[in-house]
Amino acid sequence: MPEIPDERLRPRSQVIDRAWRALGPGLEPLSGPDGAPLTRSVKLVVLPLVLRPVLRPDLAGDLLTARAADLAAGLLRADGPRLVATARWFALLKRVRRALKVVGGNPQDLYFQRCYELATEHGAPDGPDAEEVARAAVLEAADQGDRTVSALRGHLADPARARAVASALAAAWESRTPPPPAGPVPKEGTRALADAVLDGCPDGGGGEAFTALVDGGHGGALGSALWGGAASGWGRPGAPAHLGLTAEPVPPPPAVGAGASTTSLPAPLDRSVYERVFTLLRAPGHDGLPPVPELVDAETARACAPLGLTEESLRVALLVGGRLAVGLDPLGTGTGPTAAHRAVDRRWRRESSVSRARRATVDPAADQGPFADLARALRDPWTAYVRRLWARLHGRDAHAVPVSDTAELWALLDGIAYSVLRDHRARVRAVLRSLTAPANDTADASGSAA
User: Fold this and answer.
1) Distance of CA 363 to CAs 297, 341, 356, 375, Å?
2) Contacts of residue 447, Cβ cutoff 8 Å, sequence gap at least 6
3) Do 377 and 384 meet the contact criterion of CB atoms below 8 Å apart?
4) Which terminus of the chain, N or C, has fewer Cβ atoms within 10 Å?
């Protein structure tokens, strides 16, 4: 189970896990062997359909206050009978799927949310028509090929469509707002406003500064400045103006693309239209997106927008998140410039389980050893943070979900910070395991030989 980072906050994953287990038997089709909810159960059912963080911003972060944790647990408890009915519908749909010899797609992706709808509409599948309802649901899902990676592949495999998208990309790229002359990014006024947001948002403040950033188009201005190769002005030596959102000096013109892989995606602003749509279709809640042809058109325009985003509050969220990221100091002992920096730094520095390994990463010798990548991640924390934040904002942009206030912004920024920390913790532990593996392997080999 994840460790509780402090006495006031609870990891949302831990709250969900405990509340799920407390629901008792009947959830096995939606659970793993140890009784915990499957990852897809959380992403496709619990979050979007039970907790609904879009409507309850206090449940949107990876860390919850005690009050929010109680709310989340209560929502799961109240929905227990419907979740059990969802599990029974899923077991029935899988049986019907096998009988119909349907093989396309992942059953969890295809049926989890539909089963929740069936449980809402019909209750448990006990009626005489349950099997017929399940049969119709399986056939319906088999016919809906308009929001899948296969549909995307087929759409852009057509040469005429690919040429049309390429032409639209070229036109959109040429019609961009001319970037301002190269200069510091962000400007001093922008940075002061971002710091005001970061100083207030952990306690629900900073609203005026956030509104000023949005109304003033500061996020769009940052994105336009990057097209002109603006110099870094984030206030941290070595931090590029784009903070790792592209591997190039400036964002390149987007391509149409013809394939994508989750293990080798380029930096966000270097992705093709195919790769951008691919990531959206692989994310939870993609059923709420437009069909693939409309989604491709939307991403063609979005790929040519400042920061690769079209909604200004999301661009400002990226700007403020970038300011947070460059000021993080997980290995230091100083005081961060804003309340947000101090809150995140405190969490990093309390990582007792990996503190020794984290200290090893500041040793110059670590640049050549197994901790080399971790050393770079700790010294340059902005890349992992900003890329993960961009991905979250890209999904919100595609679903037309802006950032409405600083409380919602802080839930987003703090959740990303905790997510990056959790990843780093896992990577450190993986390195430590790998360092002990050779000795164990030798012992095992000797035992086998004997």
Assistant:
1) 49, 24, 12, 9
2) none
3) yes
4) C
Q: Other C-beta atoms within 10 Å of 445: how many? A: 10
Q: What pLDDT shows up at residue 178?
A: 63
Rg (CA), the chain: 24
Residue 125 makes CB contacts below 8 A (sequence gap 6+) with 85, 88, 89, 92, 118, 131, 133, 134
Give the CA distances from residue 142 to residues 101, 107, 148, 283, in Å, rounded to whole numbers and listed in that order. 11, 10, 11, 19
How does 53-76 read in b/e, with b if 16+ C-beta sit within 10 Å? beeebbbbbbbbeeebbebbbebb
Q: Is 196 helix (H, G, I), strand (E, B) or coil?
A: helix
Q: Report how far Cα 369 is from the mean position of its chain's Cα atoms.
A: 30
What values do phi and psi take at 31, rounded to 5?
A: -120, 160
Residue whose pair of structure tokens reads 């934040």 in the numeric block: 389
Find out whether the peptide bond into 186 is cis, omega within 30 degrees of 0: yes
The model's pTM: 0.71
Q: What span, in angstroms and rounded, lies between the C-alpha atoms of 25 and 21?
A: 8
CA–CA separation, 271 and 158 (whole Å): 20
Between CA 112 and CA 121 the distance in angstroms is 14
3-class secondary-structure state, position 209: helix
Number of Cβ within 10 Å of residue 359's Cβ equals 11
State both tokens at 100.
């119909």
Packing angle of the helix pair 382-398, 312-326 (nearest 10 deg): 170
Sign of the Cα pseudo-torsion (38, 44, 50, 54, in order): positive
Is it the case that residue 345 has pLDDT exceeding 90?
no
* Mean of the per-residue pLDDT values of the chain: 85
Q: How far apart are CA 307 and CA 223, in angstroms?
A: 5
Q: Cβ(97)–Cβ(134) under 8 Å?
A: no
pLDDT band at 94 (very low <50, low <70, confident <90, very high): very high
Say how many residues make up the chain.
Answer: 450
- Name residue 3's amino acid: E
